[in-house]
Structures are given as structure tokens and as C-alpha cells.
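A quick word before the example. In earlier lectures we treated sequence and structure as two separate objects. From today on, think of them as two lines of the same record. Here is peptide-methionine (S)-S-oxide reductase written that way.
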Amino acid sequence: MVVNKCLAITTTRAISISASTTSPLLLVSSSLSTRKLPLSLSRPNPTTLSLNSSATRLVSFYTPPMNILNKLGFGFKSTPDPSSMENSSIAQGPDDDVPAPGQQFVQLGAGCFWGVELALQRVPGVTRTEVGYTQGFMHNPSYEDVCTGTTKHNEVVRVQYDPKDCSFESLLDVFWSRHDPTTLNRQGNDVGTQYRSGIYFYTPEQEKAAQESLERQQKILNRKIVTEILPAKKFYRAEEYHQQYLEKGGRFGFKQSTEKGCNDPIRCYG
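And the structure line, produced from the sequence above:
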């Protein structure tokens, strides 16, 4: 969840440096009027220091956000450099990766991709899963970029499956069961465009099956489904620590089974 905060600091001090002493001392004056300075989290905010000489210079007290906190889901997210979005035609292009012979791809977005991937790993006939980002405007985004909400990517699982052993409808059944398709850009406490519901197809047959499946689900639910059904676009594989995250133990080191047909409850964060 990305939170934008506008903060202001009220200051009543100016710092004066005396040039008449051998070791300059910082003298705080309390006689100046109060004024407000904006605190920016994306660029430095210079504060003017008044010197006894005629010179005036700007000094920045800006500290960049801590990347480690961002990766853990805390702190503020910096906005990606707009210049890094200049290759958006690549991001908006089709997925040019090729599945294994006789296999097919589909991309499914149903909230945080960790639990969705594990559920799909357990489906008989699924031969490979990868988590990543798609449907955005930025070429080669990072997890931090996606979390800003400005790149418009979605967290998805790209599933490779053998249609002889796994029907497309069985994948859709898992998809619908793993999330609430009626909440826009949100799954539980996970809020943002990267958590939207989406089916991203590679063939006309998949598109038709997805539309029919959505219509069946709509008859079951009493709220409007907001799942988007769109052609698959460029898939950007997520950082390695995201791959098979729950199978490897998640946050707490408790590995979860990927055995085909396994019905063990999925602990979404490990």
C-alpha cells in the first residue's frame, strides 16, 4: 500500500556562524519569526545558513528513504525516474517468450503473487510457474518501482501448463477461488494497482474461455466483478527472492508443499 503524505516542519531558528572566533561556534537565534518549510521525500530541501560575511549558501539536510524498509513493505516509496519509462513501447508489446514444446502460457493476477503461485504450482499439469510484472508502462521495472503505483504494472503468475493434462478451465477455477474479483485494486490489506484482478490470455481460445468463466462467476456473486481480461503483454520476471517464495519458506522459514493435488491451507506470507 502506497501512502503519500504531505508534511511541513515549523522552524524558529536560524544558524549564524561568527567569523571572529578561531573555532566558529553555531549560535541559535530565537528572535526570528516562525516560518514553515516543506519537507520533500523525493528531493533535497535546502535550508539557508546566514554567514557574517556577505556570502549565503544552501545546505541540504535531506536523507533518502531506506531501501531495505521499502523492500519489507514499510516506509515511503520513491517515484521512478520518468526517463526510465521511455521504452514503454516494449512494456506494452506482446510477451515474446515461448513456452516449452506442446505447452501453453497464461498470466493470472489475483493479488499478492506469492500465495497465487503456490496454489497454481499444486495443479496437475502445471509444469512451471514464475511471478512477475506486466501490463505496465515502464520497461524492466523493479519491485520498488511497481509498489509506487505509477508504473501501472500488475503482480502476476505466468503459468506454463500442458493442455493434455491441465485444462484452462481448471486454472481459472483456482484463479477465482484465490481472491475476491469484486474489489478494485485491492485484496484484503494489500491495496494498489499491482493487486488488481486480471486474466491475460495468449490465444483466442483462452480469451473466449475466460469471458465465459467470468459470466458464470458473475451469476454466483452478488457484486460486480472487476476482473480485466486482456491480451498478455511483456512479462518481467520478478526478483529471485520472490520466485517460489512460499515453497522456499516465506518470511518465517516454514516451507509449504507444492505436491500436485495438495490441499494444505496456504499461509500467504509464510
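Notice the following. The chain has a mean pLDDT of 79. We will return to this example when we discuss secondary structure assignment.
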